[in-house]
């Protein structure tokens, strides 16, 4: 007795194939480990131990031994009254976008990868510039670091690093004295204030003269109605006194003669009376 083969409908075969494929895929997904969050354990901060007001310096931040970091956020605490952020000074890993926001004493450094850039692993380095604005001791502290993975998971580090900077006041420049011009001895022309405009009558003031010159320092005085004396002669008024002197001598002589004659006459009269 012959048995006929029973044919299964085509729809049943397709359905069974899909079920098997789905089961295999589910098993593969279940067996794969879940994606881990970014890893990091510490961070370092590098800055000069001393600085001067007005002179900018760099602060370097490093996060060593990371894995699967697609973005990070670093919070740096710095006294806003002592240091100021230098605009556009932030740097970070290549292939990403960096920015800095300030809120009081907190400076937040943000780095995110571009859409086509892969996640980062290894040592991550960032840097910003600060300018001291006041003398004193300033503490720089990295208070928080948040790492974000490519799948959105995150890892946070708290109080990972700090340092202290001693800031000195800027040196005061020493003023340079301005040289003073030394006057040169010589003749100085003094304008006559009584002269009219356009007709100056300067009086020359002579410079130092030779002390061996006998006429040095002599002043010529004009004589009214007479000739001017030459240098070295005494000043005179210009009046002619010779006639007056001669007349005075004549009067004195006449007076003396008259007195002598009267004395002789009186002597003779006394002598005649006695005889």
From TrEMBL:
Superkingdom classification of source: Bacteria
Leader sequence segment: 1-36
Alphabetized UniProt keyword annotations: Membrane, Signal, Transmembrane, Transmembrane helix
Positions of the UniProt region annotated as Disordered: 169-231
Low complexity compositional bias, start-end: 183-208, 217-226
Gene3D superfamilies: 2.60.40.680
TM ranges: 241-261
Protein known as: Cohesin domain-containing protein
